[in-house]
Amino acid sequence: GPDFGYVHKEPLFEAVASLDSFGNVEVSPPVSVAGKDYPLGRILIGSSFPASAGRRMTGLVRDFLYAQRVQAPVELYSDWLAVGNINEFVTFVPTSDQKRFRMLLASPAACYRLFREKQKEGQGEATMFKGKGTALGYSGTDTKRVTINKVLSNDALAQQNQYVQRCIDWNRDILKKELGLLEEDIIDLPALFKLDKQGKAVPYFPNTVTMIVLARTLGIPKPFGPVAGGECCLERRIRALLEPLGLCCRFLEDVASYHGSLGEVRCSTNVQRRPFAFKWWHLAP
């Protein structure tokens, strides 16, 4: 259509992998870092751990992105994930304050804190995945009733999530440095992961960070967390974190359609964004 264009890059001699999916290419909001302005934000891409032989985005696309110097790319560590896309652990939401945005990070540590709170309140038998056990079968949830107590007593799961948290913290430090962020600019959303047979992380319940942002309305994967007091405690915590920023949280069921295939609603939806008001194509690096 009018005012739309695209670039087609097709590698001739390289195989493509899931890191070439465009959930592995994000752009930050406009930022200023160490006296340098990035009025179009910065490109974020996921890769393997430095100096490792892990998965990387195909060189053809990676080189093309690095050529976009006005949005100088930041490379993150995403190869610890089974799919390997950065949108599985980071996203951005708009705010009306001076910062104009917050960065959201998936956080196993925040999830364990929440579950321990609920356990201390006497809600340890609150059940997860109500009505969705079979659809979430790859997590083992179709064979037993999953409660807060069972999650907290699962030492193997705890160790796996400590590893995942270290991977996310590595990225947290990179993002703070490269986007000029403070801790107050970051919100940790409760998340849990488990490792597959290859030692890669998959979401334990629908991953709420993989949301779709529609101005101030957020389409968030419904997590089917422990129901305490008639409400999912994960949904309640997420609302408490995001609604004070003027955001509207809408929880969308995507278990059968996306989550069961290691995706969420954002993986096959897109949004037509309103372009910047200024002539952004005149910007020079």
Q: How would you describe what is shown here?
A:
There is one protein chain. The longest helix is centred in the middle third of the chain and has 25 residues, at 155-179. The radius of gyration is 19 Å and the shape is globular. It has a single domain (18-267), classed as 5-stranded Propeller (L-arginine/glycine Amidinotransferase, Chain A). A three-stranded mixed sheet has the order 1-4-5. The protein has 285 residues and is of the alpha/beta class. The chain has helices at residues 59-66, 108-120, 148-152, 155-179, 233-242; strands at 25-27, 31-33, 36-38, 43-47, 74-77, 90-94, 101-107, 186-190, 193-195, 201-203, 212-214, 217-221, 227-228, 231-232, 248-252. β2 and β3 form a beta hairpin. The chain contains five helices and 15 strands.
Task: Please work out how many helical segments DSSP would assign.
Answer: 5
Relative helix content: 10-25%
Q: Tell me the series of helices and strands, N- to C-terminal.
A: EEEEHEEEHHHEEEEEEEHE
What is the domain tally? 1
> What is the CATH class designation?
Alpha Beta
**Overall pLDDT:** 89
- How would you describe the shape? globular
Number of strands: 15
Oligomer category: single chain
CATH architecture identity: 5-stranded Propeller
Cα-based radius of gyration, to the nearest Å: 19 Å
